[in-house]
Specification:
Helix content: 10-25%
Number of strands: 6
Low-confidence stretches: 1-5
Number of helices: 4
Shape: elongated
Distance between the termini: 27 Å
Order of helices and strands: HHEEHEHEEE
Structural class: alpha+beta
Strand order of the largest sheet: 3-4-6-5
Strand content: 15-25%
């Protein structure tokens, strides 16, 4: 979990970053190496979260709940799906496990083999 939490401050040695990514306005060079510019760092939220809690969060573009929903009780599943419906932007995606399916009449569309669903 520490690596995920530190992703916003990720710094890579220049040889580890392909030139395609080095030569654009998305990264900047510093003494320690190459990192994303602040407008990218500030727009990425990586968080470990208890999906059952209804904490406020900014509108989300991608939520990964891989092999999570199926382990919840039916009433918790309904609550989580309602939370996702409220939290994911229109056109955003939710990634679920291979054996998980979002209810077809809930407004979600299957995008890739039923594991990625679009709001």
């Amino acid at each position: 979990m520490i690596a995920i939490m530190a992703a916003a401050t990720l710094v890579l040695a220049e040889p580890a970053v392909p030139s395609t990514y080095r030569d654009n306005d998305l990264v900047e060079r510093g003494e320690a190496g190459i990192r994303f510019v602040s407008r990218i760092r500030d727009s990425v939220v990586l968080e470990f979260h208890d999906i059952r809690s209804r904490d406020d969060c900014p509108p989300l573009d991608v939520v990964v709940v891989h092999d999570t929903i199926s382990f919840l009780a039916p009433d918790e599943q309904a609550s989580v799906l309602a939370f996702l419906s409220d939290s994911v932007r229109a056109g955003g995606i939710v990634v679920v496990g291979d054996n998980e399916v979002l209810v077809a009449d809930s407004g979600w569309q299957s995008v890739v083999r039923t594991v990625i669903w679009r709001a």
